[in-house]
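Quick one, T. Sequence first:
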Amino acid sequence: MTWGTAKLGDLILINPRTTAPAGQICEFVDMAAIVPGRRYVRANTSRAWGGSGAKFVGGDTLMARITPCLENGKIAQFSSQSVVPAQGSTEFWVLRAKEGVSDPAFVFYLVSTDIVRGPAEKSMVGASGRQRADVEVLRSLEVPAPKLAEQRRIASFLSAYDDLIENNTRRIAILEEMARRIYEEWFVRFRFPGYENVRMVESELGAAPEGWQIASLTEVASVSYGKNLPKTKLADDGQFPVYGASKIIGRYTEFTRECRTLIVGCRGSVGIPQITLPRCFVTNNSFTIDPVHPRGLLWLFLALQHRGLADIVGGAAQPQITLEGMSGANLIAPCDDVIYLFDRVVRPIFELAWNLADKNRILHATRHLLLPKLISGELDVSKIPKPETAAA
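Structure tokens:
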């Protein structure tokens, strides 16, 4: 199946004029709110209308125009229940469907492909590190232009994948919150199973159950500093993944069943990477933390998330965590039987989240393969099973 082409500027509106009363409080989307690979973005704050930022309404697609955000895939469709227009970063392009010509969801999927992203990235000009793509290149770009009805069929099919991903993501967030609340109940309020029979005693960190210890991070875990890796190693065939601070996002679902090590960025972000191999390389802008207790990984991760590490960040020119600072990070360490019991309680929660994250990875990969083929007309949407059928 093939269809004609059109200039992107004829198919959609690029940076259309959008107005609201001066001083009107409206939703605001900054660049950090967009997660590459996620279709929808919602406002993460609000502010009075005005200024030079991007202006848009629900259904519009926001596309980063600056490096490295564009290369990283910061493109999303704005979702909102408000009838008031929203605004956002000055580094967004706003892409809006033309009534009777294009479909809002199809616009998002079209600009997410290399058909649009590739030329946009190649058009970048400006000083190193602050290069911006040329909007005129975007306007004049020849793109596939199926009829509106076919656009809607393609968008509906791809939306089924994104809706499943979005639903799984919401469920993961609920599971993450459950794990966090159980941790707080047991280790902050000290209402763990059998707490009624345990005497509370004073410690340097306040009241703590008798038998628990005040221990430094280096006493409950083996802490190692990452290393400088030779360029040849960084550019190898990917047998062992490389993790640095930029890959540490702090979400519980970034654990995998094979993971035995925490990674902490030098500036204090705590996370668990997607490690599916028995080994990984950790660069010198992060630490590896291996719990001493064989069932202590989940407890230690939640403990560090709750505690935070801001108080041990030092250095004026470039604040960062050091091994010396790590040795001064004290925790209230529970006795072994409580750690074992906690792992038994929260591990099934993590397992559910991991299963959903695995499903999302499969959905993402399938959608990524189908997207350019459907947009170009190489595949007929009516000949492909819906994602629910494919997943089954």
